[in-house]
Predict the structure.
Amino acid sequence: MSSSVAARGPIDCDLHPVVPGLKALLPYLDDHWRETVVRRGIEDLTTISYPSRNPLSFREDLRDDTGRTGLDAGTLTRQALDPLGTRLAILNCLYGVQAQFSEDLGVALTRALNDWIAREWLDRDPRLRASIVVPMQNTEIAVDEIERCAADRRFVQVMLLVGSDVTLGRRQNWPIYAAAERLGLPVGIHAGSMYRHPMTPVGWPTTFTEEYVNQATAFQSQLSSLIAEGVFAKFPALTVVLMESGVSWLPAYLWRFTKFWKGVRSEIPWVSDPPPSIVRDRVRLTLQPFDAPPDADSVMRLIDHMGSDEMILFSTDYPHWQYDGSDPLPAGLDKSLCTKIMEDNPLRTYVRLREREVVA
Amino acid sequence: MNVEVLPRAGAQVSSSAKLAIADCDIHPRTKGSGIGGVSASLYPYLEKRWIEHFQTFGVTYRQPWEKGSAYPKNQPLASRRDAWPPGGGGPGSDLAFMAAQHLDPNNVALGILNPLGVGQGATNPLASDALARATNDWQVAEWTVDKRLKASVVVPYEDAELSAAEIRRCAPNKNFAQVLLLSRTAEPLGQKRYWPIYQAAAEADLTVGVHAFGNGGWPNTAGGWGSYYIEEMVGDAQAQQALLVSMILEGAFEAFPTLRVVLVEGGLAWAAALGWRMDAQWKKLKAELPHLKRAPSDYMRTNVWFTTQPIEEPEPRSQLAEAFDWIGWDRILFATDYPHWDFDDPAHALPIKMTEAQRQAVFRENAFKAYRQG
């Protein structure tokens, strides 16, 4: 299939196609796994990161009769792309395949999920792109899956969850970064978890609110891991995108990291550049949710603290409820910055979005 | 030693340090590491049964090593190279030397003592309790004889009932200014199992200080264990955010409106963004939290303080003052972390423009208010 896209319009870097249920993936599983899923009564893999009935999981005004939305490409494009004149949109499917404790089952479901995304979504609308969902249970197989999917150039990114089994910077994960770099794919780290560990370093939270608020701290720790282990030094062409991270924690986080880097950098001698410059060059963050200060004046002060106007990538986080009304851009952002966020920054970040003709 | 110590021509009083200050994080140390991780200097305060226990079984924590920290520090005992007392003993173990090196030259008018490594979070809560009681008696007998210094009630915080009993035992002694917890607990600190501690502290009008670190048994990230000391050090800001979120969202400040919490050594610049995030989510999810009567960030403004060390260092430094504006200058307490390696010198640690009132507040007045001193 060949398609061309509009020359202008925002590029939405984080939307979520919703899997109606495991039944939808059955056509993409082989006989053994189809039978396994049916016989063992595995119905759904929605995780506690985004429970189905939770106010945050679906915007109230977009829900259908079942209380959900975004279950098919037509609905998603009508609700999220058409109103904003969106040129391109990157689908990040959040569907618990990474949380399977069985590596075999996890891998089978992940492959099916990626095929489902290609057939049921990317084939349906030329504006859609997607991230490759990765079986985080096994690095070697993750690399295979990245290579398999990357042949379809509508897959523009590798997606990992912020709640991993081992910290993402650890060397055992490096083959994933090597593959991503080689194939021109940024590595996007999205909120969510394999749930091998609690969302906080002090144990399991009580409420969903507590869990979700703490997702931002998980991003902070993973960024520490990626920097400290030397991922950015080892893979100079790799870009990391933090998705649905909250954004506004970044400056204060970097101030603290930099202070300790000055003090104990002998422990990590490969981190030779100041951490803020590494992050400004190599890390990007999707816009929503933007945990903004309450006053517009402070918003630009915060942007100033980030030290770069190239880091934020436009996103609606559809269908999650992050903002009301029709404008995903927080009040207080300069107009020129908005243009960068909506178009320039995404195009610079994603090599494959710059390809005008995409052949699947 | 494999690191040179800068030669210093005696202790010097710099001009900006002349202001009498409050130092909200000073670490007194028992002399020697002792058998089984308990210094013999605590023996006068321990029952024979416990001395024998520690000599036989030692103190164990939820981390691998019999001796030393989970992540090796960057310096021996994480201390300044010049902080070893000439008369022997580890850094912070000699009151006279501490006074000569730090309290006198830096004009410390109020110093909050935060003993570490004395059984907090030990796997055996009874052992933790025995060590806490001994440490508290030791502080009063050997440290608060210097009237500038105030002790912390060390508690076996994983057992809230024992902790509350110890708080009630110590509270009548006005040499204590706070109850001391560590941040890396077994569960988030807002959970009800810890509430007896807050109830006892609130009744005694004692601040609850939560110092960085400890061993709660959980990985230090939602994605597993970090590899490096720097990840642990940076990461305590995430642990402090998590415990603060827990205390606020669980309603600890609704249940104990007079509870005062001081977060120690976990950074503070993050507090602004955390407040924005909590408020934004609370607006959407408040049906889950009917016990909250105010926006989450509001409780930070009334019940929570932050110590400065290790103060964040943005470039340009003026951004730190903007962060203080967001957090509230009345929430910020100066601390040095003496005698640790990342000591913040009061003469140099806050190179930002401050009004005289702001300077007085951060370096002194806020602490006197938060700790109910003077």
Summary: Residues 208-229 of chain A form the longest helix (22 residues). Chain A touches chain B through 73 residues (CB under 8 Å).
